[in-house]
Amino acid sequence: MTESWASIAGGSIYAETDGEGPDALFMPVAWGVSHDFYQVLWSNLDLALRVTFFDPEGTGISSLLPRDWSPARIIDEAEAVRQSMGEEQVILAGHASGAFLSLAYALDHPDRVAAMILISPFASYARASRLSAGRLEANPNWSAFQKRVADIRRVKLSAQDRFRAIFKEQRALDLFEYGPHYFEMADAADE
């Protein structure tokens, strides 16, 4: 594993590179998550690639989230990381909204992309919710879940604690600590 830093106007981006093979750059999701989340998941795939993961601003050990942040800034961060890698072209990989950011990066920098790996791409949680609402509402447990969410919202909780309480109602595990800017980034990514 190799650690590195890339500079971007007003900040710095932390990156880690691991593996052997052609150079790939992993695009984080639009709501921001530190590199270690995807690095652990990716390591189980055993692909012959040298992959660079990075912490977008406001996550991990990269600089703080700028006041004017938007998900498009992650595209600029990815370009700064690619430049710091010293590679003319990279294989671009992304999951969920990170796949859509990969597509946006490819449109902005077509000559920098050798290939793409898009995993379960979708543009936003709001759009995914609209597309799946009918299926959720048809589930026999949906009304009980909605009632429990309404009960949770009546209790005075921080945004982080409310999110965790609702997330746990879905029987999901609390796998990582959300950074202080997570909710701001999630809201901006869903616009």
Describe the protein's architecture and organization.
The protein has a 6-stranded mixed beta sheet with strand order 1-2-4-3-5-6, with helices on both faces. The radius of gyration is 18 Å and the shape is globular. The longest helix is centred in the middle third of the chain and has 14 residues, at 72-85. The protein has helices at residues 35-43, 72-85, 97-108, 125-138, 142-154, 159-169, 182-189, and strands at residues 2-8, 11-19, 23-27, 50-55, 90-95, 113-119. Helix 2 packs across helix 3 (97-108) and helix 5 (142-154) packs antiparallel against helix 6 (159-169). It is 42% helix and 21% strand. With 191 residues, the protein is an alpha/beta fold. Strand 5 (90-95), helix 3 (97-108) and strand 6 form a beta-alpha-beta unit.
Largest sheet: 6 strands, mixed
Q: Specify the structural class.
A: alpha/beta
Judging from the principal axes of the Cα atoms, what is the shape? globular
Whole-number mean pLDDT:
79
Strand element count: 6
Radius of gyration: 18 Å
How many helices? The count is: 7
Helix/strand order, N-terminal first: EEEHEHEHEHHHH
User: Termini distance?
Assistant: 35 Å
- What is the percent of helical residues? 40-55%
Low-confidence residue ranges: 170-178
Task: Determine the strand fraction and express it as a percent band.
Answer: 15-25%
Sheet with the most strands: spatial strand order: 1-2-4-3-5-6
Q: Could you give a short description of this structure?
A:
The chain has 191 residues and is an alpha/beta fold. The protein contains seven helices and six strands; from the N terminus they run βββαβαβαβαααα. A six-stranded mixed beta sheet has the order 1-2-4-3-5-6, with helices on both faces.
